[in-house]
Model the fold of this input.
Amino acid sequence: MASIGRGARIKGANFEREIAKILSDWWGSRLRRVPNSGGLNIKGDIMTEDVDKMKDLPFHFELKKQERHNVRDYYKQAEHDCPKGKKPAVIFSKNNDYKFIMMKLEDFMEFTKDLTNANSHEKIDKGSE
Done:
């Protein structure tokens, strides 16, 4: 495996911190980047601040900030490293671009099922007035 330069490591670490902040606001609990970019016994790039609460986070996140993407390889890595009971998800971007998330459609549908059901009941109730 080719080594990456210092600038690329810094760029990746900054992206991990940025996404950890965004996901913390979304999740409602403090998340942070995994020290040493997954070099410890914790796989993935994002973890809960309290290691004991890792089981509550439903996703295993891999993050990539590169100018050229190979999302299939990213997803294979996320899937390979994903602990049992979690859903692999890849968040990726490049300079001055949108952030994207990649996950299996079935995982997305399962995770959003309660939200979808709540919205469909709301539409039915409004339509019957």
Q: What stands out?
A: Helices lie at 6-27, 71-81, 105-111, 113-127. The chain has one domain: 6-127.
